[in-house]
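Lab manual, section 2.4: Encoding a predicted structure.

Procedure: take the sequence of the chain (170 residues), apply the prediction step described in section 2.3, and record the output as structure tokens. A sample record is shown.
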Amino acid sequence: MSDKMDYFELLGLPRSFRIDGKALEEGYRRVELQVHPDRFASASPAVRRVAEQWAQRANEARATLSDPLKRAVYLCEAAGCPVEAESNTRMPVDFLMQQLDWRERLESGKGDADALARLRAEVAAERDRTIARIGESIDERKSPKDAVPDVRRLMFIDKMSRDIASVEKP
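Recorded output:
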């Protein structure tokens, strides 16, 4: 295994936004079996350390590729299209208005399970649409640059989803 191997290569997956979850898990298990620390228990400390590094890299690959947001950021940045989440927070006005609406509904919906369920469903539907657009940009149009605004949008949507979940589970 090369230390320059990217996450897709490492787990034996095609380099695309849309991935097969079962293939991801199978690739991870294959690598994990090869580098599991138990296999190197009697090896030298240097060999054990290398195996631990590969196991950590496999864990990072799995965590990154299993999450649509992390996977999108990884693909965009690997293609030279930085997401710049911290420094570029410009968003379209309609999306900002939608965010304000969701925030108001979250605040007013506290204690109202039905209102929170409707909001959660709406946010989940917008998340699904955004993920689909990211997949189209990266996989069909081969344009990670076009995906960047939707990747930033997905960051806001995922944050909103977490905030709804935190209110639903006191």
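Check your result against the sample. The helical segments are 7-10, 21-35, 45-66, 68-78, 93-109, 113-140, 144-168.
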